[in-house]
């Protein structure tokens, strides 16, 4: 493919709607719901036709490569008994034997802190529900087609689902083992049950399947049953969803000849969707909008009201009836168990009402493809290289760092239009693209170990050790690293213009005639530092309400007094926020994208071309015609073009203020940094890294703040109540105490969906009616639409809005005279009466009925200017403007704020923004799932408001830079804590084989039964510890424990208890103890880990902590009492190694605060260090022990015979 080149991709990447979701399934109730809503598998279903005439959903079927382990074949119809055995009891469905540990031995599932204690919800996890839902156009085709076509659609869905499961089994289905899940090891496959469902809660066709993967897998290496590695599974969900989409459309192309197309979203903020060509958008709307169900129910209630009262209801009554319909339509999904055949008839009638017949739909959709599906042979190496570069550019645009799952997902999106010949070809193509993309990426964490030759499955997979799985590697790009380095360098450079210190102090502390200072003390200090620092790049950060804008107003005024008018350039990430900044500073401001476009982007390139043409014309016409007139014309063009370019160029001595800088992507900041350096200007970034981050790769303001290179404002001045200032800071830090404070003051309201939306609306409407400036914030665009419709109906009922003459908007609603609308796109061609252009985020009030052409007259709410908007702009780029999202609310300050919170929609940053807009009150309305109506299959795991807000606080969305991520990865993988866990895993394998060999020799046939016990792992650990000290004693204890005796239910537990007791009598051995073993691959990897342990121990011991660390200060005075300097240094090194070994983060106590969950050897090592330090810290406890080794791993970390 000669001539292939890479197009510019900035700003063109958009996500596609995800069609697969994941949720945990509790052992107590999750499967019960599925069984309740299916035709029972205990009763034979003769053929597919029976599914259409039977009430309920079809019985589930077993799937997965792990089915061999439970004696069932994939495709077997699931019975109630087998499902309950596997999912509820973790039992073999045939033999009844435990599949590893029973569910009664519960794991903690993080579900957010509780309302009082901050504890996590605890319940046994039986499995994970992966819900595969076909795109709406596919559901429509399935629902309206004849049975032959419908069966092929269903078969395509089933094949795509099964192939996706196979794809997951090869890449994501595994188990974690060892301390802290240090090793990711392969398993034989998944045990899964698939349950088909036909419809949504609203009764619309929604073909979807719940694929419930059991939380039990069987290790490939030894056949042991263990739990699924859910961490990796969750990371893989988005990539798996994209892969399923591709497989589904591939299958539909092969079986039905369909084509696909990308459908534009209803509004600018929604994702586009890929749908089947030929399925009309009206049909999709008919079968997907819940608003339609509400409207139908409202119409029914209105008719009943008219029959009862003999007259039409008033607008107020209609409004109440609609509210009743909103609540009444949220019924349980299985409230009516209707046979599928009846549903199909109903759906066809609705489609016919829109003029669509099955025949017409088939003609428009089926057998439309005229191209051959692709194979790998069709895709050249050059295509893979170029497309791989495209994938990396798209990923790098959205994030500073990425992993293989991100690459796989983006590769699927880029190749969404490619139809492949079979599943293997699609998987191979995507893997090849991911491999190609990785070659263009820069790894941030290397593979630490070399996989030994011929390594077994317990040590390596896919060419990498179990400690370094392929999908754990993190990448960035050379461009991102270079951009970050340029910004970091600018923050250290001190050659920028500024004010003399005394001038800065005078300006910052100036007082007007009133005698009151303009700035508070912390604002004065910040202004002085920014004005006088001489750093090329400064940053000013502070929480919401700290007065960042007021501080920068003082800085701007002071700078212009010294450097003259025009010496301050004000920039912001969006046009509306630039307007706000310009008004606050009293000067013109622009958005960053526009500035870059005009200064060195396409705008500058266009002016350069015009300049060259004029210059050429000037030279060309010197010898012909009326020379003077043509020279003048050319000179005029040159002057105008150069003047325009000069307007967009930085000059020496200028100050560039970038507000809301956390929302500006790194590549833009780097470009501005370069311009400022070249011009001899200074930049200052302003914002709050705890608020919204850039949608592209970012994190630089956060880096400046975290590394102490930002000037921080600390006091708050926005809130009326002092308690709210303190509570908002708690929210900002993710501290649960902040939520409790809001709850104590009645600012947390909780309930079901409809009630919370109504309560939030009512609170906002009451404040607006009382003359207060209020903001109504929703967690997503769908809720914004619901609230906007609610507000419009209310205003229409009072006569404030005329809904008889309306224009269509982009959100699917309409607007009439009196409505408030929101512009969602910048358009510099549409100008208002004051000369300003329409901006994304501008609020307007419609002041007149629309013209025949659909144009409306509006008044801008920010400036009062009038403006006319035509039908095209209204229908494409406007929405009703009563409610807003948290993202759009940043930068707004009002009297009161009302925010609706739903599960999984808000990050901590968004919640913090939403809860800090109001001066006097900010109230959160938390939507708790309705157990009767929630779509999820497991009501046990549905969270209450404390869990929902706990999840919000835990969802930190602020991005870290690639440089920070690299350091964090290194810090987390090269600690003694991590390395000891890896060594522990390896020596446990050696001890396991050693004990098995001993049992096989001395008690043939016993090992297999003993290994089935949950006590086998602890017994191996105790055997290893004791055998390292006295092997003969360990062997005697095992043989004595196996002496025949009656009533023993678990002989392995007896062996464990005897070995542990004997080992404890001898205490914890010092140093690293190697267990016997004769596997070359195991010995090889043990040696590699031990070398890393030595290197890390030397590094830690050589590190002398700074005296600023509180725990060092606490120890320093006592250490001075040790006269021997060598002993002082040894003592400090031993404490450093202990802290690294046990991951001590306590910053006040050198040995950390003792906790109840400490392991025995951690306690032993602590006691030995305390004894050694006793003359220093506890002078009455006796002399110190001199022979404490600086590194003492516990018996549970598999002590090895090797000294550091």
From TrEMBL:
Ranges where the record places region Disordered: 94-118, 1181-1204
Leader peptide range in chain numbering: none
InterPro entries linked to this entry: Coronavir_polyprotein_1ab (IPR050534), P-loop_NTPase (IPR027417), TrwC (IPR014862)
Domain named TrwC relaxase: residues: 28-352
Superkingdom of origin organism: Bacteria
Protein name: Conjugative relaxase-like TrwC/TraI family protein
Organism expressing this protein natively: Arthrobacter bambusae
């Amino acid at each position: 493919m000669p001539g292939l080149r890479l197009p510019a991709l900035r700003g063109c990447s958009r996500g596609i709607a995800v069609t697969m979701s994941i949720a945990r399934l509790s052992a107590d109730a999750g499967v019960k719901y599925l069984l309740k809503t299916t035709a029972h598998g205990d009763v034979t279903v003769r053929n597919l036709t029976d599914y259409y005439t039977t009430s309920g959903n079809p019985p589930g079927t077993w799937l997965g490569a792990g089915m061999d382990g439970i004696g069932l074949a994939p495709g077997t119809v699931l019975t109630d008994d087998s499902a309950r055995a596997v999912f509820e009891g973790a039992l073999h469905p045939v033999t009844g034997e435990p599949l590893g540990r029973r569910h009664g031995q519960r794991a903690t599932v993080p579900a957010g802190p509780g309302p009082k204690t901050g504890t996590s919800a605890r319940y046994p996890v039986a499995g994970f529900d992966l819900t595969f839902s076909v795109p709406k156009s596919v559901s429509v085709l399935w629902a309206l087609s004849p049975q032959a076509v419908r069966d092929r659609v269903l078969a395509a869905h089933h094949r795509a689902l099964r192939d996706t499961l196979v794809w997951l089994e090869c890449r994501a289905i595994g188990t974690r083992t060892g301390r802290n899940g240090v090793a990711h090891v392969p398993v034989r496959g998944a045990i899964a049950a698939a349950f088909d469902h036909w419809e949504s809660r609203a009764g619309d066709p929604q073909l979807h399947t719940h694929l419930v993967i059991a939380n039990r897998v069987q290790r490939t290496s030894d056949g042991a049953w263990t739990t699924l590695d859910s961490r990796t599974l969750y990371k893989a969900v988005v990539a798996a969803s994209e892969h399923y989409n591709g497989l589904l459309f591939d299958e539909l192309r092969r079986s039905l000849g369909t084509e696909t197309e990308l459908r534009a979203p209803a509004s600018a903020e929604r994702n586009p969707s890929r749908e089947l060509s030929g399925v009309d958008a009206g049909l999709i709307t008919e079968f997907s909008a819940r608003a339609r169900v509400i409207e139908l129910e409202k119409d029914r209630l209105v008719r009943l009201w008219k029959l009862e009262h003999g007259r039409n209801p008033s607008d107020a009554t209609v409004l109440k009836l609609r509210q009743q319909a909103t609540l009444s339509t949220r019924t349980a999904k299985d409230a009516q168990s209707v046979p599928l055949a009846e549903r199909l008839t109903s759906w066809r009638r609705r489609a016919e009402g829109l003029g669509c017949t099955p025949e017409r739909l088939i003609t428009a959709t089926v057998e439309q493809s005229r191209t051959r599906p692709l194979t790998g042979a069709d895709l050249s190496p050059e295509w893979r290289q170029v497309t791989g570069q495209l994938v990396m550019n798209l990923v790098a645009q959205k994030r500073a760092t990425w992993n293989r799952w991100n690459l796989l997902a983006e590769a699927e999106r880029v190749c969404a239009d490619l139809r492949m010949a079979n599943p293997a070809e699609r998987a191979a193509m995507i893997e090849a693209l991911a491999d190609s993309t990785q070659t263009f990426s820069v790894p941030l964490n290397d593979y630490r170990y070399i996989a030994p030759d011929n390594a077994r499955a317990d040590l390596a997979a896919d060419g990498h050790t179990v400690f370094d799985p392929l999908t754990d590697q993190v990448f960035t790009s050379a461009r991102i690293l270079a951009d970050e380095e340029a910004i970091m360098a600018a923050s250290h450079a001190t050659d920028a213009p500024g004010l003399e210190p005394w001038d800065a102090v005078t300006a910052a502390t100036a007082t007007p005639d009133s005698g009151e200072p303009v700035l508070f003390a912390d604002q004065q200090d910040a202004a002085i530092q920014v004005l006088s620092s001489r750093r090329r790049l400064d940053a000013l950060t502070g929480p919401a309400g700290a007065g960042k804008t007021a501080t920068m107003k003082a800085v701007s005024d002071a700078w212009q007094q010294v450097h003259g008018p025009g010496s301050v350039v004000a920039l912001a990430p969006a046009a509306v926020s630039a307007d706000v900044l310009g008004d606050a500073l009293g000067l013109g401001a622009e958005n960053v994208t526009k500035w870059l476009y005009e200064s060195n982007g396409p705008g500058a390139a266009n002016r350069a071309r015009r300049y060259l043409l004029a210059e050429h014309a000037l030279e060309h016409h010197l010898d012909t015609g009326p020379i003077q007139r043509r020279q003048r014309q050319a000179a005029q063009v040159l002057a105008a073009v150069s003047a325009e370019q000069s307007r967009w160029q930085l000059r020496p001595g200028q100050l560039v203020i970038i507000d809301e800088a956390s929302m500006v992507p790194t590549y833009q900041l780097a470009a501005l940094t370069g311009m400022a350096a070249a011009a001899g200007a200074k930049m200052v970034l302003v914002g709050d890294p705890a608020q919204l981050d850039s949608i592209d790769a970012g994190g630089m303001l956060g880096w400046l703040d975290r590394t102490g290179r930002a000037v921080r404002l600390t006091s708050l001045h926005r809130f009326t109540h002092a308690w709210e200032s303190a509570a908002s800071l708690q929210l900002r830090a993710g501290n649960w105490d902040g939520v409790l404070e809001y709850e104590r003051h009645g600012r947390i309201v909780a309930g079901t969906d409809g009630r919370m939306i109504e309560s939030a609306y009512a609170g906002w409407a009451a404040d607006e009616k009382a003359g207060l400036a209020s903001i109504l914030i929703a967690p997503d665009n769908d809720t914004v639409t619901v609230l906007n419709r609610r507000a419009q109906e209310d205003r229409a009922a009072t006569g404030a809005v005329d809904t008889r003459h309306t224009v269509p908007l982009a959100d699917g609603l309409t607007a009439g005279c009196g409505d408030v609308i929101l512009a969602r796109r910048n358009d510099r061609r549409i100008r208002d009466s004051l000369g300003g252009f329409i901006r994304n985020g501008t609020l307007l009030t419609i002041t007149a009925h629309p013209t025949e052409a659909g144009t409306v007259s509006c008044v801008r709410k920010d400036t009062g200017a009038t403006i006319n908007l035509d039908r095209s702009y209204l229908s494409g780029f406007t929405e009703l403007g009563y409610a807003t999202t948290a993202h759009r609310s940043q930068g707004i300050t009002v009297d009161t704020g009302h925010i609706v919170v739903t599960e999984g929609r808000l990050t901590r940053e968004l919640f913090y923004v939403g809860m800090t807009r109001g001066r006097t009150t900010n109230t959160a309305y938390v939507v708790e799932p309705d157990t009767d109506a929630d779509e999820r299959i497991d009501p046990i795991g549905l969270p209450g408001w404390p869990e929902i807000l706990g999840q919000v606080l835990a969802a930190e969305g602020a991005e870290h830079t690639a440089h920070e991520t690299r350091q964090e990865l290194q810090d987390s993988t090269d600690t003694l804590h991590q390395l000891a866990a890896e060594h522990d895993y390896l020596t446990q394998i050696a001890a396991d084989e050693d004990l098995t060999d001993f049992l096989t020799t001395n008690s043939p046939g016993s090992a297999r039964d003993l290994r089935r016990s949950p006590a086998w792992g602890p017994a191996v650990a105790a055997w290893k510890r004791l055998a390292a000290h006295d092997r003969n004693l360990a062997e005697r204890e095992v043989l004595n424990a196996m002496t025949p005796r009656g009533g023993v239910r678990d002989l392995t537990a007896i062996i464990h208890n005897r070995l542990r007791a004997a080992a404890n009598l001898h205490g914890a051995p010092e140093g690293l103890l190697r267990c016997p073993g004769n596997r070359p691959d195991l010995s090889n990897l043990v040696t590699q880990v031990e070398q890393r342990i030595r290197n890390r121990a030397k590094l830690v011991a050589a590190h002398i902590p700074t005296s600023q660390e509180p725990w060092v200060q606490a120890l320093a005075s006592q250490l001075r009492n040790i006269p021997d300097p060598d002993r002082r240094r040894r003592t400090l090194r031993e404490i450093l190694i202990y802290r690294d070994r046990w991951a001590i983060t306590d910053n006040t106590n050198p040995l950390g605060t003792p906790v109840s969950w400490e392991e025995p050897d951690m306690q032993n090592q602590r006691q030995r260090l305390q004894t050694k330090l006793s003359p220093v810290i506890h002078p009455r406890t006796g002399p110190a022990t001199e022979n404490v080794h600086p590194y003492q791993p516990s018996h549970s970390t598999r002590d090895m015979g090797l000294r550091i």
